[in-house]
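From the thread on structure requests for the teaching lab: each student submitted one protein with a one-line request. Submission from student K.M.:

"Model Biotin-dependent carboxyltransferase family protein from Thauera sinica, tokens only."
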Amino acid sequence: MSAGVRLEVLAPGAYASLQDGGRRGWRRIGVPWAGVLDSRLMRIANVLVGNAEAAPVIECFDGGLQLAARGGAVRVAVAGDATLEVERGGERVPLAAWRSLTLADGEVLRVRRLGAGRIAVVPVEGLALPVVLGSAATYARAGLGGLGGALSGRALAAGMRLASAAASGAPERVLPLPPPLDGGPIRIVPGPQADHFTDAARALLVEAEYRVTAEADRMGVRLEGPVLEHAGAREIVSDATVPGAIQVPGNGQPIVLLADAQTAGGYPKIATVISADLGRLAGCRPGQVLRFAAVDAVEGERLARAAEAETRALLASVRPLRGEGVDLAALYAGNLVSGVVHALSDEYRPLPDVEHGPDGASS
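Reply posted by the TA:
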């Protein structure tokens, strides 16, 4: 690591934190996984920048993140449906996502807004963070992970600086075809307490539409829609939960647990979102409408294997940025050749008549 090379957070946007593959193996003592909400985005982003697939990344929501290189060049990447720009020499240049880029000292990357989802991931080449219980993932409620020291467990804030390796100078990389948007139902496996709900409630869960509310964060997503009626008691003796579990409290409105969720709870769980669809659900925006579809555990496992195969294919398709992934918006906005004018502009003047000799040469 080159001394003094840093990536400074100028603005964290709606919420930005340092995450990795998560803190696995500690739920039995009450420590949530934490980690990224969409592991596919993390893996693609890290491969783009040249890191290990599960290396720490910046996870951000809804745009607004601004990062600046300090003390030298820093290589980053962006995975997600994001509109980006880079500030260079006082000019703002549009940039495509799903690629790596090297910020020269003083240059600024802005994630202006997100499109189809609410999550984007920004890895930093050579980012080094302290590991707590096997992970650098930020878990704010317990003050774990992140930058370490007095900043342990804190979301990113303006003025924070991340130590980084100096940019390697390797060719920039691009994902030529980003993963397609999937508007299909979120697949779920019934249970583990499906019998705590009426037959009508179980049928309603897969027949009705539910809307993502504004109460959506890294801990979970509250949905609103038709009430799911309990068959008996509205609470159970607290038992284990996992990300993806759909709890239904007394008001009958489902809550889907995500990476930062508690490890145990007393609301019955009508179903569990399969791992292949959990990242997609986590990326849903407030106001977005979704539907559920039931599958059994065997089909859920098959879908998980298929999703992994798709991810591996995407990772294998990452390639050096040469003729592909050109930032057309930036090219069209720039004056690539000085002195050129449009033929129909006021600056256009027809050339004077010239006489040509028999060989075509002008005279």
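TA comment: The first helix runs from residue 39 to 49. The domain at 186-295 is CATH 2.40.100.10 (Cyclophilin).
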